[in-house]
Amino acid sequence: MTTPTPRIPRIPRIMVALNGARRSQDQHPNLPITTQEIVSETVACAQAGADALHLHVRAADGRHSLDAGRYRETLSALQQALPGFPVQITTEAAGIFSVAQQIDTVAGVRPSAVSISIREMARDPARAAHMYALCQDIGAQVQHILYTPEDTAQLLRWRDAGVVKADQSSVLFVLGAYQPPRTALPADVAPLLRAAPPALTERMVCAFGPSEHAVLIQAAQHGADLRVGFENNLHSPLGPLARSNAENVAALRAALPAALAEKESL
Predict the structure, then answer these.
(1) Separation between Cα atoms, residue 99 and residue 102, nearest integer Å
(2) DSSP letter string over 172-211?
(3) Which of 104, 176, 193, 259 has the most neighbouring CB atoms within 10 Å?
(4) Tally of CA atoms within 13 A in the half-sphere of 238 that contains its CB
(5) 249 sits in which H/E element
(6) Exposed e or buried b for every residue in 223-233, given b needs 16+ CB within 10 A?
(7) Other CB atoms within 10 Å distance of the CB of residue 266
(8) Does the N-terminal peptide bond of residue 4 adopt cis geometry, omega within 30 degrees of 0?
(9) Alpha-carbon span 23 to 208, nearest angstrom
(10) In this structure, what are the phi and psi dihedrals at residue 199, rounded to the nearest 5 degrees?
């Protein structure tokens, strides 16, 4: 009698979101803001087990920026420090930028990967098709940012209409919120991922609030990839402020084998 081969659990990818659009060093002194800080922390996160970077850049005064030149400068510095390390730029509007400006950023940077909020694109549906076509033309991998079931429904409508291209199937489900503050909970994960349409084949989860780590463990057990970092949470899994993004990447990476083994034994 042949002994069945044990199924090896899928190891999720970890993307790190170092800073976000809204946090400042008043909230955490080790929040990376400058190009050098971003590069140094990305190197540390890669050494700690991160597989990719979700990149926000800041203006000289520290505010959120979509400046194409600043993006190109930072991407070049990252490439020198970590050749081949995957980097996804954000197009987050953060209440500042229009859809036209978001498109200009993608056209000016020509990134290999980009995150785009369905909710933000829906502010200007006439330009949304141009954004997704541009990404297809330049070969940029799109990750759709989804905050609500309504966002998911809009994405599916645009897929059916050909606005979103068939191969643009990567999504980030955002649990909780920054403003007004709403903490994500582990119990939020299973219903969300079970209800996710099969067409959305590449699924990643991020979680606002100090329960981030527990939420991401649940997401990993349900087959999703993970995004961790100070954009969503400044605390360590044990409760106090984390010392760095790299500390939380390392803690998450270290916790995954036991969490996945536990899932397989159920």
Answers:
(1) 5
(2) EEEESBTTTTB---GGGHHHHHHHS-TT--EEEEEE-STT
(3) 176
(4) 6
(5) helix 245-265
(6) ebbbbbbbbbb
(7) 5
(8) no
(9) 13
(10) -65, -25
* Cα(104)–Cα(99) distance, integer angstroms: 9
Bridge partners of residue 17, in order along the sequence: 54
What is the rounded distance in angstroms from the CA atom of residue 218 to the CA atom of residue 58?
32
122, two tokens: 């829906």
Within a 10 A sphere around the Cβ of 76, how many other Cβ atoms? 11
Site of tokens 């996160």: 45
Residue with tokens 């081969």: 5
Name the percent of the chain lying above pLDDT 90: 90
- Is the pTM of the predicted complex or chain greater than 0.85? yes
CA-to-CA distance for 52 and 225, rounded, in angstroms?
Answer: 11
Radius of gyration of the chain (CA): 18
Q: Are 180 and 204 in contact (CB under 8 A)?
A: no
Angle formed at CA 204 by CA 208 and CA 240, multiple of 5 degrees: 30
How far is it, in rounded angstroms, from Cα 119 to Cα 102? 13
**pLDDT for 8:** 53
- Residue 34 Cα distances to 19, 65, 114, 247, angstroms: 11, 12, 20, 20
d(CA 126, CA 104): 15
User: What domains appear along the chain, each with residue ranges and CATH number?
Assistant: 14-265 (3.20.20.70)
Backbone phi, psi, residue 265, to 5°: -80, -10
Bridge partners, 116 (sequence order): 144
Q: How far apart are the first and last CA of the chain?
A: 24
What token pair was written down for 170?
A: 């990567």
